[in-house]
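Figure 2 data, in text form.
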Amino acid sequence: MIISQLRQSLPQNATTQADNVLVVHDDNFNWLQDGSVDLVLTDPPFNIARDTNFHTYEKNTINSFRFDADKGWDSYSSEVFRELLGKWTREFARVLRPGGNFAIFCADEYLSDLISALKSAGLKPRRTLTWRKPNAVPVNRKYMMMSACEYVVLGIKGSKGVFRSNIELEETSQLTGREIVAIADKAAAVAEQEIRRTLHALSHRPSVEEISELVKGVLTSSSSMTAKRSVNIYSEDGERAELCVPNYVSFNSKAGNRLHPTEKPVALLTYLTELLSSPGDLVLDPFAGSASMGEAAILSARSAILVERDIEYFDKGSERLKNLVTAKENRLL
């Protein structure tokens, strides 16, 4: 209901709608009513843009850490950025309903500042999720650890928020993203430990070819045990998946053909959306960028309001969602 109401009250040239997703060209969301949102899931500026020589690395897909170019949306002073964190979090608190969740992406440099701002706004940060990126660009690998993680501060307004760690199998005819992550995570953990144990037991330095054969042999010999342990998420009666969700997750970052330089993978956003909200809930992303959150909302049967201040990304994101809905409708015909 709120989607159609907003579409009528906002300037028509500042909005576009695809399915149950409303995209708004604006630099704020003060027109959104109090307590109307079930989940705030957003990727605000990290304030880490800087000029570098990363563009000289041949496998780099983002060209430079000065990815805001001349737009200036990620190059604030530290003082100004902390003030913005306070402003943003107070607005998150205003629009979230009691019991609503939030999941806010953040760089490690400002984690403590974001958590403090959330607390000052009356919200309750509960966990920091580490997103591991297996395909991170190994820039500066000779001098320091590569930047292969981002962080997401998770929490709630009030108490008793949605946390969908159990999945009733009769509710869905397909595997959910949460199940897929849990199964793969368990299988990978078993295989990793067996490979480490085998390599530690060696009494000599093997050749590269020997290492490859050893890994192949471990995967083969441990396949039955790995398969058995990977499905330990299901109840004995086979009626539900009972997930123990860790505060880390692995997803490849978006590489190549980006609509936005800091574009997040839809699979990660869908995973968080399904975990922290229920079908039909309303999700807010006030830093929409390329509208990845809109795609995640459509795929997970949620409604969403996306706000983007840059007209270039507003247009690109709107077109992306319209194309997604058209493709979805064509598949159903």
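Caption note: The chain has a mean pLDDT of 88.
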